[in-house]
Write a structure and sequence with these properties.
By secondary structure, this protein is mainly α. The chain contains four helices and two strands. Strands 1-2 form a two-stranded antiparallel ribbon.
Length: 116
């Protein structure tokens, strides 16, 4: 997993920079290396997530999502926040979007979390 490897390398490099800085050695070039490492990490993340998003778009059939119970609706509301007004729903119910919507919400949350 390249993004994880880059994060591990970044951690080691930061610790090394702090150690050398503690001895008052010049670490400017190492910090430039950290910036390049961050750029590679971002590129790697974009490539990885681009593939994940394409996979989700490719496997969706774009038919309305069916919800059969309160439990399913609550699970959906956990990822698609307020995309549905729960007060007007009678079960089973067809929602005005496909399973793509909650999957994209979940992927976006994971991407944002990984980017931080």
């Amino acid at each position: 997993n390249q993004p994880q490897m880059l994060l591990d390398l970044k951690l080691l490099l930061v610790l090394f920079c702090q150690t050398l800085g503690g001895y008052e050695l010049n670490v400017t070039k190492l910090y430039k290396l950290l910036i390049n490492l961050y750029q590679k990490y971002c590129d790697s993340l974009q490539s990885l997530w681009k593939t994940k998003f394409k996979e989700v778009f490719g496997k969706d059939n774009y038919s309305p999502l069916t919800v059969d119970s309160d439990v399913q609706l609550e699970q959906l509301m956990g990822c698609a926040y307020s995309a549905v007004d729960k007060t007007d729903i009678k079960f089973p119910s067809l929602l005005p979007f496909s399973k793509l919507v909650p999957e994209i919400f979940t992927l976006m949350e994971e991407y944002i979390e990984a980017s931080l």
